[in-house]
Amino acid sequence: MQSDLVEEQRQPLLIVISGPSGVGKDSVLQRMKERNLPFHFVVTATTRPQRPGEADGVDYYFVTHDEFAEMIEKGELLEYAIVYNDYKGIPKGQVRQALASGRDVMMRIDVQGAETIRELCPDALLIFLSTRTEGELVSRLEARKTETPEGLKLRIATARQELKRVGMFDYYVINPDHRLDETVDIILSIINAEHHRTQPRQVTL
Amino acid sequence: MQSDLVEEQRQPLLIVISGPSGVGKDSVLQRMKERNLPFHFVVTATTRPQRPGEADGVDYYFVTHDEFAEMIEKGELLEYAIVYNDYKGIPKGQVRQALASGRDVMMRIDVQGAETIRELCPDALLIFLSTRTEGELVSRLEARKTETPEGLKLRIATARQELKRVGMFDYYVINPDHRLDETVDIILSIINAEHHRTQPRQVTL
């Protein structure tokens, strides 16, 4: 939109959806893709095994530990972390290209990774996703059936610590069971609002 | 909404819709009322003559200059200003009561008044409404047919000065002709987003 009175802010945003394991980060991003929202969805590189239904290059770039090590050495990752013995990283070039094209960049990342993004880019838009109750979180992790009892315990303990970091985020959104579209709508409201700030975020990487 | 993990922020907001004369502040608030949005809409006291279609106690409290002077003396006004030879003021008690009841308070006010609200309440949510172009603003003022040529000239000159104050506001929203519902939807997005901030605004008066 053009205006000779007030300059409308169309600077692209770097949007980070984060929160404890099990809150529904992947589901939220999946629903956004289904709704054909005009974001660049970052494809994360990971060494974790491909789950049924996941496609390489779409859900993740599935790479070997050797390939991942090479990306680290070449400085090709914006951020990377070991999450439950698996590596995950955000390819830097991909994010820069998308921002340069003027598109809002959308990524999901664990809480530790979000902290790193905040340090690298203080004006990133950080959204903390949470279940309504701890019970809901436990139910979702159990329903996945991908966790050993020890793994589950570890994830819950980690979640409790991560919830204390919510103040580092800009916004938090509760993602209740069976109301994914409402959650997406709230996130879209936040993004819409951010594009109407008089003091726009300055995203530089 | 209740959560034992993250406290959802339901602190009421003090929302100020401002902008130059002619940008459509009254129309935007009128449309919000028609849509039965759950805000407390502040009723401003004014000494200006009632226009056709306006109802006392609904659109404004129409008061005499003597009555207005008494409200000033008794300290019953949050803010007041002389606007084109007429007095307008915000009854303080009304705003406090609405906030105490937990409702978001919505008011429209001229740019000068918005500056006063910012001083009184730094965490007020200030939205600057603008037309897309200066030509649109002039057309709207002319269409009102309530302006003398001198009055129109004065309003346009004032608008030019007011546009320079946009940085004092939190958000700006373009209100194009014939797209009132879109404008209202953007404002609702902003309010929705604000209720999901991790650092909520502290509204005290």
Low-pLDDT parts of chain A are none
Task: Please tell me the overall pLDDT of chain A.
Answer: 89
CATH architecture of the domain at 14-42 and 104-194 in chain A: 3-Layer(aba) Sandwich
Choose one word for the global shape of chain A. globular
Question: Within the largest sheet of chain A, what's the order of strands?
Answer: 2-7-1-8-9
Name the helicity range of chain A.
25-40%
Q: How does this model look, in words?
A:
Two copies of one chain form a homodimer. The first copy, chain A, has 205 residues and is an alpha/beta fold. Chain A has a domain of 120 residues: P-loop containing nucleotide triphosphate hydrolases (Rossmann fold), CATH 3.40.50.300. In chain A, 39% of the residues lie in helices and 20% in strands. Chain A is built from seven helices and nine strands; from the N terminus they run βαβββαββαβαβααβα. Chain A has a five-stranded parallel sheet, sandwiched between helices. Chain A has a four-stranded mixed sheet with strand order 4-3-6-5. In chain A, strand 5 and strand 6 form a beta hairpin. The radius of gyration of chain A is 17 Å and the shape is globular. The two termini of chain A are 26 Å apart. Chains A and B meet through strand 9 and helix 7 of A and strand 9 and helix 7 of B.
